[in-house]
Amino acid sequence: MRVVVRSASVWGPGLPGWARSVAVLRDPSLWDGTVVAAPSATALPPNERRRAGPVTRLALAVAQEACALARVEPSEIAALFSSANGDGGVIDAILNALCTPGADVSPTQFHNSVHNAPAGYWTISHGSIAPATAVSGFDWSFGQGLLKAAAEAVAEAHPVLFVAYDLPIPGPIGMVRVTQEAFACAFVLDPDPEAPGLATLSMTYDATTSEGDAPDSAAFRQLARGNPAACGLNLLSALARRDEGCIRVACFNGQLKIEVSPCLTAPQS
Length: 269
Fold this sequence. Notes:
- The protein is α+β, with helices and mostly antiparallel strands.
- It has a single domain, classed as Peroxisomal Thiolase, Chain A, domain 1 (3-Layer(aba) Sandwich), CATH 3.40.47.
- It has helices at 18-26, 46-51, 54-70, 88-99, 107-112, 117-126, 141-156, 171-176, 218-226, 233-241; strands spanning 2-12, 15-16, 78-82, 132-135, 160-166, 183-190, 199-206, 245-251, 254-262.
């Protein structure tokens, strides 16, 4: 299975968007870990912007940047949103309300509690009727989501926007399900082998092992251990360095083996 990565986006500590993160992804010794707030979800109408939580705003920020860099119309591209935790902050608030005598569950909180809320906000913000899917696969959510997005792109013969994101969970749940930092990344995947892009990915699924490659740098290894979406750091680094090589990403009950080949025709800036 082969797709072209037309663009990539990233947002996390010390990684404030693709353009400002390329140098750090190429040389992780430059990473300072500074926490950066995600940009406002300006594509959302004002009412929806007020309702959207930080998880949705983060997912939409990287999705918007990836589409802009690939020069694709957000209203026309199919999208796949992948998150291990969903909106843990909303779930914590709802559980607190349920455990508090006389407290009510906010309709807005209930609206945001469903796992596909970011996908729904994405389609609302752009008036899109293109398919938008939400998936989750615990610590394997990045690999599972990337595999499904690439499979859809190839099977349906159209580009797919893939977005992976997770935030720390507050409250008692967060003490059991520890996520250390906010992180998100996005990629526009195109099945057209002639499409301009950063690299071509040739993917195979291996069911005999479920091990993935950890980042080479200690700082990025810690970030990847602390957030399931940060399992995309190896791929992001390879795209930034325009490296040719093999990346292994853990999937549930298997491994996604990705051969990365830089494109000769780069996307226009």
